[in-house]
Amino acid sequence: MSLERPDPALDDDAVLLVGHGSRREESNEQVRTLAAKLESKLSVPVDAAYIELAEPSIDDAIESMAPTCRTMTVVPLSLFAASHVKNDVPLAVQRARATHDDTEFRFGSHLGIHPSLVDLLDERVQAVESDLGVDREDDDVAVVLCARGSSDPDSNGDVHKLARLLYEGREFTRVESAFIGVTTPRLEETLHTVAKDRPDAVVVLPYMLGDGVLTGRIVDTAETFDEEYPYVDAGASGPLGTDDRVVETLADRYQEARSGSVEMSCDTCKYKVELAGYEDDEGGARAMLRSLVHQAEHADRSDVDDDPHVHDAPEKHVAVCTNQTCAASGAATVLEQLRQGVRDADDCDVHVSRSSCLGQCGDGPIVAVYPDSVWYGGVTPDDTDRIVSSHLERDRIVSNLVHQSL
């Protein structure tokens, strides 16, 4: 008996580097340049795609690349993990998994905190010190690391961590973090606060990939500060650009994805845990997508004998939130009793699965039924029989348990 050999024309692996996308072609070209550098470093094909504002889109790029490789690793070219990294890019990967059965998809982490990036920032500071004629060993040099700012506290927290890592072991007077928008502290107020200590020099580091509008705004702010405070020399560095240390970080993220060792900071993610001030940020759309992906993956076929792993899509998909607060309220028991109730029912074509946070912390356990888009809240193990017998078997909604309908 001979074994069927893989198509030798296919690449074993390929990488899709996903940038944000910009109306400025220079920014889009930077993504393509980094993709080319990464391809040279890894010796595997690397293409570029964009979340918005530029072509190709992630979906189009995957459609083009998937037939040419056995495994595709999608790596977001993003400094921190905010909504694009946590929502948009993973959703595109999920869609791809549902429609490209012959390709294995891996999802890499964002750039995040990496020693190579800390070294790059230190080098950027040294260049500004040289321009200003100061030396951190002999002069009081303060550094302000300025990032874009996000509505995601997890992302903003990493900016502060990066600033601290830059400070550790170096002769800076202080290293502060600031933001150019969205959140606080803003760059202007941080610079004014730093000036009160009357350092010899202040170095502003725009923590940006490209030389775009926000980077220009940071540089302008540093120049204005330099004019307003004549007793402090101030200057700003350029962005990270296409430096080889950015490529090194991307290469590590690729290797992590290949080995299955990607780590995300779920313990501080507003979509996973209840954070004060972010209670209204809902992540329930992912539960709906999970249902849709499952249905697309197992769509009705006229002849399933061609693929023994294919089965007809279930009539309903039930997602039970088993995240922190729901778990504390007995979600695991609700999940298992729903599964047992479905197994025991005479006519109940339902798939029951656990879900991550549905964004309704404090009102759980939450049970979401799709495609009906009905969410039940405060579900107890005693309620599971009614959900199965009334809703799942007879399409009669259990009205007194309804938390919301979408």
UniProtKB/TrEMBL annotation:
Keyword Lyase belongs to the record: yes
Keywords: Cobalamin biosynthesis, Cobalt, Lyase, Metal-binding
Any one GO biological process: cobalamin biosynthetic process
CDD domains xrefs: CbiX_SirB_C, CbiX_SirB_N, TRX_Fd_family
Gene Ontology MF term list: lyase activity; metal ion binding
Highest taxon of the lineage: Archaea
Pfam families hit by this protein: 2Fe-2S_thioredx, CbiX
Record SUPFAM superfamilies: Chelatase (SSF53800), Thioredoxin-like (SSF52833)
Metal-binding keyword on record: yes
Protein name (database record): Ferredoxin
Organism: Haloferax volcanii
